[in-house]
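User: Design a sequence. Structure:
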């Protein structure tokens, strides 16, 4: 029994270990829908070009319809002996329709076939990820919309720096995910090129109409060099880079959620459905989802490194190494998709605790810069103002009070330029309102940004 496409040349069957080592069907069967779509477009073009007959095309279409039904019903029998998704589907087609099935592979190689399948599949996944990135942004904007006046201590070096609007902080992440979406849309352009027609590596002697196949499959154009078409996987690496950057952003947000939920901050709470308990400590409610999102970032980075390393030593053109592109790529897609979905839901349900945030901002002399600016605007050189305020903070620290709690006469004693209006400037709200610059944290600016994002995201 001939179980492999090339077996006439071989005098003994493949060893069991080699068979298992080289087979990819267990994971690449996930490409089945792309594989069928690619084959149908190829067959249709072959028939239009007179390479196969109209009845062959009809047989192939009929056979593929049945295979589709079998796979969807779960009754398709995937065989390890047939190595990969491509050979499994082709063998079943031949079983179903005979010679027409054997004509399908005319002018084609698995090398251009697999490159086409992966691109088609990835394009479909990208088209599902783009709305998820928009959903993540929408969740953040919705939290922002309710919190333009909520005051959070902004940190640098994890030390209280200046008060910021909590909405402003949420919108910082919106900017990051908006850039990620831009990046993904850009990756899509380079994913969406057709390798089919490159055949094994050099092109083919059949009069193929590659542009026609590209159009049928919705590709923006064809790969212009057959050697490049079958051998490069830079589109997958680029996707991995997009995914890594996106997960890096997710991970920073996750890290902040974990911190904010800690009793030492208590800035937010999460809905119970996103928390888990402890098997030993009855009091625990842990932010496991955020922690896992942070942790899963590592595996996405790992896949990017894996793909880069996979490609770096490969001489042109196709090498079996490329079969190793699939598991990291699949897992990257799954991880990013699931993470964006669950994080968007969780973010939307964040319970903000404004009093705790404000208390923390007041504890950290977050308005010290405002006092220095106040003096500078009244003619005190900024470096001198800085020094004066440092002294004032030291005094406050010794007495365990905030700057705004210093009696007016003591504030005035700091410098002759200090007037009766100084305490107003030292409030958290006064500090926020003062930063009324484009991109700044003044609630009036932040509200305008919320509006801009709502409009951009459509709702
Ligand atoms: N399963 C293979 C892959 O994933 C398909 C292409 C195999 N081509 C070949 N000449 N062995 O890359």
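Assistant: Done.
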């Amino acid at each position: 029994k001939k179980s492999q496409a090339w077996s006439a040349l071989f005098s003994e069957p493949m060893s069991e270990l080699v068979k298992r080592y080289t087979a990819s069907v267990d994971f690449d069967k996930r490409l089945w829908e792309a594989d069928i779509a690619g084959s149908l477009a190829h067959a249709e073009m072959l028939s239009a070009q007179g390479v196969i007959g109209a009845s062959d095309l009809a047989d192939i279409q009929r056979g593929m319809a049945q295979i589709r039904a079998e796979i969807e019903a779960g009754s398709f029998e995937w065989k390890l002996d047939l190595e990969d998704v491509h050979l499994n589907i082709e063998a079943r087609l031949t079983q179903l329709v005979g010679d027409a099935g054997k004509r399908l592979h005319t002018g084609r190689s698995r090398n251009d076939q697999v490159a086409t399948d992966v691109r088609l599949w990835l394009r479909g996944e990208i088209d599902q990820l783009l709305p998820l990135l928009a959903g993540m942004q929408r969740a953040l904007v919705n939290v922002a919309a309710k919190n333009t006046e909520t005051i959070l201590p902004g940190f640098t070096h994890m030390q209280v720096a200046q008060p910021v609007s909590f909405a402003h902080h949420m919108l910082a992440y919106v900017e990051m995910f908006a850039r990620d979406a831009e990046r993904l849309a850009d990756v899509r352009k380079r994913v969406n090129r057709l390798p089919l027609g490159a055949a094994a590596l050099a092109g083919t002697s059949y009069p193929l109409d590659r542009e026609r196949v590209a159009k049928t499959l919705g590709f923006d154009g064809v790969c212009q060099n057959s050697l490049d078409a079958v051998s490069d996987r830079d589109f997958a690496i680029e996707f991995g880079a997009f995914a890594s950057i996106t997960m890096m952003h997710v991970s920073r947000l996750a890290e902040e959620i974990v911190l904010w939920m800690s009793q030492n901050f208590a800035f937010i709470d999460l809905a119970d459905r996103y928390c888990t308990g402890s098997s030993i400590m009855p009091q625990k409610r842990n932010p496991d989802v955020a922690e896992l999102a942070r942790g899963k970032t590592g595996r996405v980075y790992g896949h990017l490194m894996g793909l880069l390393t996979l490609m770096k030593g490969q001489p042109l053109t196709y090498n079996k190494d490329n079969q190793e592109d699939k598991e990291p790529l699949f897992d990257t897609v799954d991880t990013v998709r699931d993470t964006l979905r669950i994080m968007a839901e969780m973010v939307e349900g964040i319970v903000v605790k404004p009093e705790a945030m404000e208390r923390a901002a007041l504890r950290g002399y977050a308005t010290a810069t405002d006092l220095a600016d106040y003096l500078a605007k009244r003619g005190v050189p900024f470096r001198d103002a800085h020094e004066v305020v440092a002294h004032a903070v030291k005094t406050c620290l010794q007495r365990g009070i905030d700057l705004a709690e210093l009696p007016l006469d003591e504030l005035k004693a700091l410098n002759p330029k200090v007037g009766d209006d100084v305490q107003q400037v030292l409030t958290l709200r006064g500090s926020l309102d003062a930063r009324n610059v484009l991109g700044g944290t003044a609630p009036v600016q932040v509200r305008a940004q919320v509006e801009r994002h709502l409009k951009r995201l459509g709702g």
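The longest strand covers residues 159-165. The beta strands are 151-156, 159-165, 193-194, 221-222, 268-269, 351-352.
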